[in-house]
Structures are given as C-alpha cells and as structure tokens.
Amino acid sequence: MDKKQEKLILNTTNKNDIVKILGPPSTKSSFDNDVWIYIERKTTTNHLFKLAKEKIIVNNVLVLEIDNFGLLVNKEFYNKDKMNDLIFSEDETKSMVSKKSFVYDFLSSMRQKLNDPLGKRKK
Length: 123
Hints:
This protein is of the alpha+beta class. It has a domain at 2-87: Beta-lactamase Inhibitory Protein, Chain:B, domain 1, CATH 3.30.1450. Helix content is 25%, strand content 29%. It contains 4 helices and 4 strands; from the N terminus they run ααββββαα. The chain has helices at residues 2-5, 15-22, 80-84, 102-115, and strands at residues 27-30, 34-45, 54-66, 72-78. A 4-stranded antiparallel beta sheet has the order 1-2-3-4. A hairpin with a 5-residue loop joins strand 3 (54-66) and strand 4. The protein is elongated. The termini are far apart. The model has no long low-confidence stretch (mean pLDDT 78).
C-alpha cells in the first residue's frame, strides 16, 4: 500500500481511480466529505521461541478524504512507526448514569415493588 498510495494525487485522482489502484476501502464513512479508510496488516508467528506470539510486520492505514465532486482532497498515511508517535487524549467523559433522574427513580421503585410486593424482603 505504501507504493500504491504515492500514485494518488490530490485534487486530480477521483473515486474510480482510487478503486482501480487500491481496490474497495476497508471502511467508509460520510461526514461533510466521504472518508475512505484502507487498512493493511501483516503478522507472523514464531512457534518455537515466543510461544506462538504474533509479531506485526506491516501495519499501514491510509485515510482518504473525497469531496462532493468525487475528487481526492486529503490523504493521510500512517505506518507502524508513525502510529507510535500519535498522542491520545487522557481526558475522560463523565457518565450521566450516576445522576438519577425522575424516570430512573420511578422505574427503580417499580422494579422493587414487583420483586417484593409486600415489602418484607430483607435488604
């Protein structure tokens, strides 16, 4: 995929050319523009020394952004070495489940009444 992606020229290559060169994408998504993702991964196993652990030989990801006219407007190529340089956010999203709403309280009380209609079960 490394050599093939070099044939893709921004603002010149169209969807049909991309499919001819790379084949169908691994994943497609649609936002403002179409985003096509190509994934190439090759692994090998060494049965004797590593107890059948897989070793990644090739791990390439190509992200292509295609505009509404079908032309390639952006391409990002990530190989195994470049992926190690990516920085991920440490931020966490707070869950809204901890805040009990009226509906949650109501359904909980209904469940409790169904499980113990006389209210005599030990807690």
